[in-house]
Amino acid sequence: MIRSVLAALMLPSVACAGGLTVADATIPLAPPGAMAHAAYFTLTNEGGTDRELIGVAADGYAVVHLHRSEEKDGTATMSAVDLIRLAPGQSVTFAPGGLHVMLMRPEAALHAGDIVTLTLEFANGERLSVSATVMARDNGS
User: Are 50 and 88 spatial neighbours (Cβ–Cβ below 8 Å)?
Assistant: First the structure.
């Protein structure tokens, strides 16, 4: 508990660079032994030109992809996403049941309060690093 509170206090609530902001970056705690996790956040383009998110890297994971979960004809599906375009002033939310970052093959077990550095990669070569906090799931999750 103390570790989680201290970690949260040390983190900036928003990462900014080049007119891009990332807010509320979290990774829900997965069951022990899980080989895949998800990361969620809100990405906003506050600049004057379109931006294209083409990938994400994450410390401590062998494979990282942009994904989208959807329901089609009553069946849940998940597919890789190659590019997410953000117009000036646009925000995109990565959340359960929609866009998310798929984090696969972790090098170590995660615990609530741990920090994972995500590096967002854009088509123009720009990178934006953000600290994502591992959060315990609510009992209803």
Answer: yes
CB 84 within 8 A of CB 126: no
Comparing CA positions, the residue from 83, 57, 52 lying closest to residue 68 is: 83
**Would you give per-residue pLDDT tens digits along the chain (141 residues)?**
444 444 444 444 456 667 899 999 999 999 988 999 999 999 999 999 999 999 999 999 999 999 999 888 888 888 999 999 999 999 999 999 999 999 999 999 999 999 999 999 999 999 999 999 999 987 544
pTM of the model: 0.84
**Greatest Cα-to-Cα distance within the chain, rounded to the nearest angstrom:** 45
Backbone angles phi, psi at 6, to 5 degrees: -65, -40
- 97: which DSSP letter? T
**Residue that has been written with the tokens 């799931």 in this structure:** 137
